[in-house]
Amino acid sequence: MPAFDVSVVGGGPAGAATCLRLAGRGLRVGLFERSHFQAPRVGEVLAPAVGELLQRLGVGQDIDHAGFVRCHGISSAWGSDRPRFHDFVFGTHGWGWQVERRAFDSMLCTAASTRATEVHLGAVVRSCHHLPDHGWRLTVAQAGELQVYWARFLVIATGRFGLRGTLADQPPIRDDRLIGLVRYVDATASAISPTLACIEAVRDGWWYLARLPDQVAVAAYLTDVDLLPGPGRTTQRRWSSLVESASLIRSLLQDRTPRSSPRLVAAGSWRRTQVVGNHCVAVGDTVLAHDPLSGQGVAQALESGMRAAEAIHRALEGDQGGCLDYAAWTQTAYQAYRQQRRRSYRLEQRWPAATFWARRHQPPAQPGPGALRR
Ligand SMILES: Cc1cc2nc3c(=O)[nH]c(=O)nc-3n(C[C@H](O)[C@H](O)[C@H](O)COP(=O)(O)OP(=O)(O)OC[C@H]3O[C@@H](n4cnc5c(N)ncnc54)[C@H](O)[C@@H]3O)c2cc1C
User: Fold this and answer.
1) Residue 293: CB within 6 Å of ligand 1?
2) Neighbours of 355 (CB within 10 A)
3) How far apart are CA 223 and CA 266, in angstroms?
4) Do 38 and 187 have their domain in common?
5) Does 205 contact ligand 1 (Cβ within 6 A)?
6) In the predicted model, is pLDDT for residue 371 greater than 70?
7) What global pTM score does this model have?
8) Domain-ending residue, one of 244, 266, 288
9) Pairing, β 178-186 against β 216-224
10) Where in the sequence is the domain holding 187, given as residue range(s)?
11) If you average pLDDT over residues 280-286, what whole number do you get?
């Protein structure tokens, strides 16, 4: 039975960053990713901070050579129907990127595999069990068979999916029930800016639109799940009526040929109170899931993976202090994120009585079971 020092479950940015950061430390690392990166993935606008994180992971060149679109800023009709421009170039990190997420995530996994991580694609981890004298036992469905792998340390990087037998088996603490209705459209010869992402607030939510490589653009409408009642949420008719309510988005999407049907995705904010366990740590969205408005999901996933790798390295040498530091960092990061999200939503005051905005303008709820369990 193959044995790893560290097994990472999930090959998104958080899992890949953990592997990249563990590289070169003489550890046997295995990464299990359920997909082959075939299905579309959301989260295409990468904040400028991502560039520096990728440099620190030793893959800064890879993104420059991948043919992604540089994102120079955001054009936002937020707080007013006159779009305003926020230029990234005047920030500390320069430009961001508009990427095809399958290609971006696959690029990071490939980089990890060239730096000594054993990457298993199409490998669904069904469950994990910790046995005190043996470490973690992972049951993995791979190529139509169930395989068993062992690991001294487990990293849960499954994003918004749970993982049986681990601390991610428990439901997270949710701040809201935001969902996204996402669609890809043809962007050939369109007025959609090649280098600016676009955001527009509407009465019951907000939109984003961004150009991606290969003449495609992604458009998404974000609202609360109860404000977009089904059935028929993903129909062309519903999509058209939602587009109609957004003047900027409507002008840019006009006559665009769809490249996909509208698809619903979960987009709410959440956190877990327990992020480290017995020879185990959770990273990325599994720990702290962002509202897409923050634009920080991928940056935070990369940073959490990097910090977790330091904690794991120390833990395998018998020092648990790194895991405690990591757990404290996740709590601080979530508080900072929540404050920023509240400030952003308060900038929009045109529909104070509308449920979507009233919910976001309320004073923050008392923290739940806030103290992190260690
Ligand atoms: C609508 C929407 C728009 C967004 N827009 C942005 C944006 O513009 N910019 C931004 O920075 N962020 C954005 N985000 C957030 C961003 O996508 C996430 O924060 C980021 O992908 C988190 O990375 P992760 O590695 O933690 O999780 P994920 O990217 O979700 O990766 C988890 C991985 O685990 C794998 N997996 C799950 N379960 C198993 C299992 N049992 N076995 C094996 N593999 C498994 C999955 O296949 C997946 O590859 C957006 C999110 C949403 C919902």
Assistant:
1) no
2) 14
3) 10
4) no
5) no
6) no
7) 0.95
8) 266
9) antiparallel
10) 178-266
11) 98
